[in-house]
Structure formats: structure tokens, C-alpha cells
Amino acid sequence: EQAPERGEEAQGLIGARVRRREDGRMVTGAARYVADVELPRCCEAAFVRSTVAHARIAAVDVEAARAAPGVLAVLTAAELAAVRPLADLLEIESIKTPRPPLATDRVRYVGEPIVAVIAEDRYAAEDAAELVVVDYEELEPVLDVDVAIARGPLLHDHVPENVYFRSEFRSGGAEEAFAGADLVVARTLRVNRQLASSMETRGVVAQAEPDGLLTVWLSSQAPFQQRYLFALALGLPESRIRVVVPDVGGAFGPKDFVFPEDLCVAHAALTLGRPVRWIEDRQENLMAGSHSKEQKLTVELAFADDGRLLAMRGRFVGDTGAFAYSAPAGLVDVMFTAQSLPGPYVVPAYDYDVLGVLTNKTPVAPYRGVGITAAQTARELLLDEAAERLGIDRVELRRRNLLGDEPTRSITGQEYDGGSYRTSLERALERIDWGGFPARQAAARAEGRHLGIGVSPFIEGTSLGTMAQLQSGFPMPSHDHAWAAVDLTGTVAVGVPTCNHGQGHATAFAQVAAEVLGVGVDDVRVVERDTESSPWGMGTYASRSAVFGGGAVLKAARLLRERILRVASLLLEAPPEALALEDGFVGIAGVPDARIPLAGIAGAAHFDPGVRAALGDAGLRVGVFHDAPPAYSNGCIAVEVEVDVELGTVRLLRTVAVEDCGTMLNPTIVEGQVRGGLVQGIGAALLEHAVYDDDGQPLTTTYMDYLVPRSSDVSAIEVDHVVTPSPRTLGGMKGMAEGSSIATPAAVLNAVADALSPYGFRVERLPLGPHAVWEGLRSGRAG
Ligand code: MCN
Ligand code: SMO
To answer: 757-767 as b/e, with b when 16 or more CB fall inside 10 Å?
Structure first.
């Protein structure tokens, strides 16, 4: 491993393998999640949900439920008339389909909330919910994007062809390039509907104080954004809402948003004057929480016979479920697929079309690797096919088309900040002994075993801030702040704009502050996840926190250090340049006795009339604003698999991940993130599939049916680092937390295709479960 590049700080904490401080409470059961929030007189909510995919609601009979024991309120759309539906706030051109907190006259997916029952406890609420009778006039459900567009019926009468969004991009030159190409490869891929399986489901507790403050405890990754959405929906000023995020047991994307249930619970708390709680159960989560990633994409690549990539073409159709209530929730997936198709390659010309389509399924939200995974998968599958048809080695084909390492702008306008595209590929090949594979494969084949190997070099767009947002077509401004302070006992606190929900920020950001301020990691407290005490920030998603949180802390800590040195300079009668901050003391370099503990500096700043007279505001608390340019990390995944052609099962033999996220704050955390994303990538490729039957009934509403990877589905994961600091971000960090989930499916699928190459196997539909493998073997193609 290379040492991370250092700025003016030299304590060595940035980049150190500090153990995650937050894990103790997690592994000893001391963590407190939303479900652990205990409030006096708290009541509970349960929801009556649609049992059909598409219907007009003829009548809802809630009389029996209202009369049931322990019931405090039964809410229907009528009672919630004052709550504004969840709607898109972004200025993008699309047809809006606001999502009401409770269904009004129509239901559009199984699991859509129709009635909320609030009762003394969950048992009473669930029992009463059972008594509600909904009279449906069933309509034909639409479950496939092609059918949705071609003949409907319409989910929302004002959305023709069920298409609420169209966007196209023409770089110029693509048509000519395709016309003159020596080889065109094309593939239509059906990407599986998946969902973010956080261990903790969604959950919300709301309490209204007599003085008008509404406090909402939420399992979340973006509390400030959610506070704003609550304010708009409930018609309250933001200043009257506090969002508190307790420990979070994973989020992986969807917990950026406000959901119908959240609004019902908040409304009930305001009207009942008692705290209300709702904790999603697993069946609700799998059925109606949020789905992700399903799209039908057709990608074409044009090549010259020397293997040069001449152009790309793509059509990306997102199956975004029953409501387009938020562009970041619904469209970000297909948009990111379209924009990131070029990846780490030189692409001279590119045309694409994106469609957002409504179907009678659970509305979608982002899930790790948002959109980029689909692009990566399609592109890398086609590169392997093109290599074979051109008679060029598939690694060599990639080498001929990879970008140089310097910053460049992609054909879709993404401002890459440079990386190690080539080095990462070569490192991965070396680690997995790519050169020795043909011999391993031949030896196995001689025994009737089928080994395959696959490689997947990637670029991961991270650090979603104003610039990246504008470039990506989602004009969402970024406002990230941080503060840093020294208290009278000499310990440091930093307020961060991010929302740690498993990423180890309380450790990584403490390392940053500790290094700059010359204190120990344990002397730094990281304050976050409470709109009342932490600084305004967009939250944690899109692998933005290392750059935004880490960068903001770096900025704030440096400013605080200047202020500490100003005070110390007066006390020690030495210029700030002569002073050093070390081990919790400010001292004069080379003068061992001349040092003052931070507590002494803080005391002087607060109470010393001389210091205050000289400096005016001598306070040791600073606040900063931080917006960062996009940062693109890169890396490469390589896997070796064995496929059992009798059973159709895939076993991973070797898994190598090389990643380059610039300056690392904490390599141990980075490796944990690589492993987690990689396992989810294996799930995406081989297991995870949210399935509906022809009537629109979800068939995967337990973990017996929706398969997530278990330890037996994974091999040991070898992680290696290349460090190319970003020349653009403060500190040189790039985000990294989604890279392995982006690149793993392609590596796995290409390895499977390689193993089965004697059978002419071709991947067209995901996931590649045993049945798909087996059918593919019989027909000479998969899916
Ligand atoms: N890191 C680092 N040096 C870098 C980059 C990152 O040390 N150069 C560290 C960071 O300090 C941070 C972690 O690695 O502790 C991830 O940083 P980053 O890549 O910036 O990603 P975020 O912290 O913004 O996390 C978001 C990302 C996303 S988008 C999803 S989805 C996802 C993921 O994180 N969801 C997760 N990882 C998850 N991990 C857990 N446990 N739970 C989730 O819900
Ligand atoms: S899906 Mo991650 O929260 O961007």
C-alpha cells in the first residue's frame, strides 16, 4: 500500500487503520434504533394495504375498526386531506404523479397504504386493521414496460403511454460511426428488480409538543432533506420540526426519502397529541418499502477491426413503479445508467434515450450503485462478446480502449478527475493470476469441471454536490456545513453534515479532526444526525461523505486550528508560525517547557480579559460551508468461478477487488465497504429478484423467496489499494462505497459466461440463478 498524500498535517491519523469506534455499541446490543425510542403514552400505527395491483376503490368501511378496542384513530385519505402528497420538487421536465400518503380513489400496487390505524399498541392496531373492508373494482394491471408503453392501460390518466419522462442525448457522430463500423455488438438486458435489504427496516416515531415543536425520529440517511419534505407536506415551518436519527441498521439508498407512512405517523402525532410509532415489518419492507434497479436496456457498441471502440448507443427504460413522486427516487437509476455507460473507456461518440415508465409495482428508490451497475454490466458483457468476435484477447481489448490516467471529460460531460484506470486493471489481473488461468481452466475441463474468470474495470461517480448534480441533470443544490469547537475541558467536537448509517464516519471524521488539531481520535466527538445540533447538510448517499464530510471537517478543523494558535500566540508570546499543536498541547517548537494544554487555551479564550480585548471574538468554535466538485474513483474487480452444469449453481473461487479512492481516511473502513458492496453485487448477479406474478401479486415477500447472499455464497475477498489523490477535492479524497457493488455483477457474469463458453452461453436476464443457468445451457443462451 502506498501512503496517503499528506497536507500540512503530519500526525499520521488520516489514513491510519483506526478501529471503528461505533462498533462496540452495535455488537454488544447497546445500539438504539428507532424501535428503541421509548416515549410515555406512545401509540402505534398499522396500515391497511392494497391487496390488489390495480383497482378503483369503490368503498372503504372503517366502522368496525373505529369501534375496536384500543383504537385511537382510523385515518383514510379524507382525514389526511390537509397533508400534501409527496411530489417532485426538482425542476426537471417530467409529468408529475404526486403520491398521496393514503390512496384516494384508486390503488396502483400491492401494498399501497389505504388506511392507517392508530391504537394503544401494535396488537390492537393490527387487529383493528384486519376489520377494515375495502371494496375494489379491479383494473387490469400493467407489469411490463413494453406493455405499459404499447397498450396500457394508463396508471395515471394524465400520463400518456405511461411514460412520464423522456430524455435524449446525441453526441454527434454516432450514426456515422455505427454505419462504418467493422463490428457492432448489441444486447438487450433485463435487469432484475431488487431492493435494499437493510437489517433495520424503515421506522418512524413522531411527537408533537404543546409548544408546537414536532420531533420525528427516523431511520434515515438525510435528515435535513427529510425535515424540508415534512415541512412542505404538513404545511409547517421547518423551524418547528426536528428530525433525530438514532443508530441506523443500514439504509443503502431508500432512507433518503419521506414515505407515505412517515407522513401518516407525523399527522397522527399532531392531531392526537400523543407520540405515534410505526416500525415496518419485513413483509411490508419487501413488498411495499421500495424497490430498485429494474430496467430494460439495449446497448450497442461499434468497433473497428483493430478493437478500437468507435461509438455507443443505448436505450434505457426504467420500470419505476406506480408513482413518479420524486426524480431522485425514480429517475436517478436510468439517468445514471445512461450517463455512466462510457465508464473508464475512450468513447468518441454516443447516443442515448432514457424513458421513465410507470407500472403497477412498488415505487422505486435508489439502491447502492444506483444506475451505474446496470451500465457497467451491459458494457462489460458486450466487451467480452466483442473481444471474442474480433478475435482479440478480452483484456487486450480493454487495454486498447482504457482512458489515460489524467483528468478528462467523458462524452456525457462527466468531469473525471483522473485515476489509475490502467494500473488497477493490471493489479487485479496480477492478483488473480489471470495469466495462469487458461491452464487452470483446461485442467478443470479435463475433469469435467467448468471454471471461468471475469474482469470488470470501473469508474464510480462520487461526491454528489452542486456541480455533479447540475451535470447529471438533477439540479439539486448542495449545502453542506460543518462546525468544529474546543470545549473548556480541551476536547474537540465536530458537527458534520453527513448521516452515518454504517459507514464509520464517527471514526473516519474524528481521525481528520484529530490529525489537524493534534489530539487523539478519542478526544474528538463527531456530532451528527440531529437537525437541532448538527450543521445543515444533504446527508449520506452517492458515496459523498468522505469528500463532503471529510472535506468539511478538514476545512473546519484547519480554521479552528488558526483560532487556537491566535490565542496561544498571545499567551506564549510567540508568532503562530512558531507554534505546534501536539498531544493536546500548543507549544513552541524546540522549547519543551513552553506549552499550554488545549483546555488552557479554551479557558483563556472564554475568560481571559486580555485575550478577549486583543482578539474580540476569541471563541474556539468555527463554522464552514463546503461544496465539492465531483470525484471519480476507480478500480477493478476480478473473480474466478466454478459452474455446476448439472445444478446450474455458481460458486466463487477467488474474488479480487482493487480500488482507488484517492487519499484514504481509513483503509480498514474502505475495505469493509468494498466487501459489503461486493457481496451485494453477488446478490445482484446471482440471487436477488423481486418477482411479481401476472396479476401483479408480489411473490417475494419473505427472505425464503427473496434471496440475499449468505456467507456460503461468497469466497474470501482480497482487497488491494492504489492511491491517486484527487487533484480537485480538499484532502484528495474520492468516495468509494459503491464501486464494488457497481463492478461485481459484470465480473461474475462474465466469469460464468466464460465457464460456459463451450455451450454458447449468453446472459440476457438477471439474476443468473440456477434455473436461468440451466435453461440457458439447454437453449444455448441464458434468460
Ligand atoms: N472512506 C475513506 N477514504 C476515502 C473514501 C471513503 O476512508 N477516500 C471511508 C469514509 O470515511 C466512510 C466510508 O469509507 O467512512 C464510505 O465513504 P464514502 O465512499 O464517501 O460513502 P458514504 O460515507 O457517503 O456512504 C454512502 C454509501 C452508499 S451511497 C450506500 S448506498 C451504502 C454505503 O455507503 N450504504 C451503506 N455503504 C453502506 N454501509 C453500511 N454499513 N450501511 C449502508 O446502508
Ligand atoms: S443508494 Mo446510496 O444511498 O446513494
So the answer is: eebebbbebbb
pLDDT in tens, 678-711: 999 999 999 999 999 999 999 999 999 999 999 9
**Which region holds residue 67: left if phi is over 0, alpha if psi is between -120 and 50, else beta?**
alpha
Calpha distance 564→574 (Å, rounded)? 13
Ligand 2 center from residue 741 Cα (angstroms): 11
Residue whose Cα lies nearest atom 32 of ligand 1: it is: 252
Please tell me the predicted confidence (pLDDT) of residue 592.
85
- Count of other CB atoms within 10 angstroms of residue 592: 7
Taking residues 50-58, report their average pLDDT: 98
Taking the CA atoms of residue 215, residue 216, residue 221 and residue 226 in that order, the dihedral angle to the nearest 10 degrees is: -80
- The predicted pLDDT at position 781 comes to 56
Q: How far is the CA of 251 from the centre of ligand 1 (A)?
A: 11
CA–centroid distance, residue 546 to ligand 1 (Å): 7
Q: If we measure between CA atoms, which residue out of 53, 63, 57 comes closest to residue 135?
A: 57
ipTM: 0.99
Dist. CA 741–CA 637, nearest whole Å: 10
Report all structural domains of the chain as residue ranges with CATH numbers, in order of start: 23-31+479-626 (3.30.365.10), 34-139+197-289 (3.90.1170.50), 295-467+629-779 (3.30.365.10)
Residue 10: its pLDDT value, please? 52
Calculate mean pLDDT across residues 483-512: 97
Ligand nearest to the CA of 462: 1
Q: Rounded to an integer, what distance in angstroms lies between the CA atom of residue 177 and that of residue 198? A: 44
CA 258, CA 223: separation in Å to the nearest integer? Answer: 10
Q: Which atom of ligand 1 is nearest to the CA of 509?
A: 11
Residue nearest to atom 35 of ligand 1 (CA): 252
* Residue labelled with grid coordinates 468555527: 622
User: Long-range contact list for 579-586, CB < 8 A, 24+ apart?
Assistant: 580/518, 581/517, 581/518, 582/11, 582/518, 583/518, 583/519, 583/520, 584/490, 584/518, 584/519, 584/520, 584/523, 585/518, 586/518
DSSP string, 620-668: SEEEEEE----EEEEEEEEEEEEEETTTTEEEEEEEEEEEE-BS-S-HH
C-alpha pair distances (Å), 215 with each of 73, 234, 707: 20, 13, 36
Distance 32 CA to ligand 2 centre (A): 23
**Three-class secondary structure assignment of 271-318:** HHCCCEEEECCHHHHHHHHCEECCEEEEEEEEECCCCCEEEEEEEEEE
Pairing mode of beta strands 492-495, 295-303: unpaired
Find cell 482487497 and name the residue. Answer: 719
List ligand 2's pocket residues with C-beta within 6 A. 221, 252-253, 366-368, 370, 541-542
End-to-end CA distance of the chain: 41
